[in-house]
Amino acid sequence: MKVIMSLFLSIVGTPAILVSLLALCGLLLQKKKTSDVISGTVKTMIGFLVLTGGAGVLSGALTPFASMFQTALHTQGVVPSNEAVVAIALQHFGTPTALIMAIGMVVNILLARFTRFKYIFLTGQAMLYVSCLTAVILVSAGFGTDFTMILLGGIFEGTLLTVTPALCQPFMRQITGNDSVAMGHTGNIGYASAGLIGKWFGNKEKSTEEVNISKNWSFLRDSTISIMLLMSVVYIGLAIAAGPSYVEHKLSNGTEAFVYAITQAGTFTAGFVIVLQGVRMILAEIVPAFQGIAKKWVPGSKPALDVPIIFPYAPNAVLIGFFTSFIMGTISMFAMIAMHTTVIIPGVVGHFFCGAAAGVYGNATGGRRGAVLGSAFNGLLLSWLPLFILPLLGELKLAASTFADTDYLIPGLALGYIGQAGKLALICGIAAFVLAVVLLSAYLNARDKKAAAK
């Protein structure tokens, strides 16, 4: 049993394997030639490895960013990091997490098949983390690690991962210009909020990507160059604030501080370029391959893919979103210090990926103003919600890390507070959530049929 669980976790926790297997199934269902099946499967896997490799390079370059930031401000506290808190939690909840994820995947497919929310969530590590959060909350609410808890957790997770891509899809159509892919990340509630804020308060006509630049500065239109220059300024500023001595002794292994700062800026930029290449490869392969699954198993379904999939559509919004979200996190941190609460130190990786995406969503509906306001709101969510969820995490509230993204925090808070009313309340709450999704689907379908008949 443990071997099977380990294999299952390894497969679903590795998006390249999971998605390439789905691409293989899709191509086989379309009865493609053997050469096309092999080519599509391999290219899908390589594309995801390129994408995740680029994301890893970005995360690696942000690690010294976080160290220099904390050293410069002499600040200690809780750092929201999904990877860190899940690594701690899996030591106690590994088996129920895996089983919740397995049931959640089945529920996701069933809901996509029989409701209008036809999104197949394919970001394996996000599924794992949501399963882990669900297990922690349910155990903290008084459930044991028995079949009832696992079934409840799987139903909740599968429903959540079906409906959150639906929240983002109207904005995804504006970002990508088509309806072929969906957003499969755990910041979807924040991204949809950013899109709405951009729509309400922004100006779509003034895009972040249409900045007027004189001919003498036309090289800044190249996103690779502009990212490199901006990040160089940021890293050099942090190196000065943290102190060159600290950088050389603690981070760079003796490399001169300013050289190290520029190298890290270049590494960050290289990671971004790698991500862009991975996105191109994935979109070229997975969308056609997924048509086989959509036609045979889940008609009309769309793959919900990881967050870097949207970065190529608005590189300027990516940077604006990151820095705006991070600035809001820093302001919030000082407010917590003044209020004498637990201090949530802004997690650079979380603010980058989620803040960047919020910037892209806000820009799609509200231009530059939408990118700033949308990512600022997202930054506030990422800063304050972790403070409120800490008391609901049982033993994990003592850890030096906690969950970071909105789709962990908001559903986790809802589950946790309902769970305080008892097991029956939690069962009824999850049942009501699923029923609401099904009824909403039926209502929207009926509305569309009525509109089409007119």
Describe the protein:
By secondary structure, this protein is mostly helical. The protein has 14 helices and five strands. Helix 6 packs across helix 12 (348-389) and helix 11 packs parallel to helix 12 (348-389). The strands form two sheets. A three-stranded parallel β-sheet has the order 2-4-3, with helices on both faces. Strands 1-5 form a two-stranded parallel ribbon. The N and C termini lie far apart (56 Å). The mean pLDDT is 84. 75% of the residues lie in helices and 3% in strands.
Would you kindly provide a brief summary of this structure?
The protein has helices at 2-12, 15-29, 34-73, 82-114, 124-140, 147-176, 188-201, 223-242, 244-251, 257-296, 315-339, 348-389, 406-419, 423-453; strands at 79-80, 119-121, 182-183, 302-305, 401-402. By secondary structure, it is an all-alpha fold.
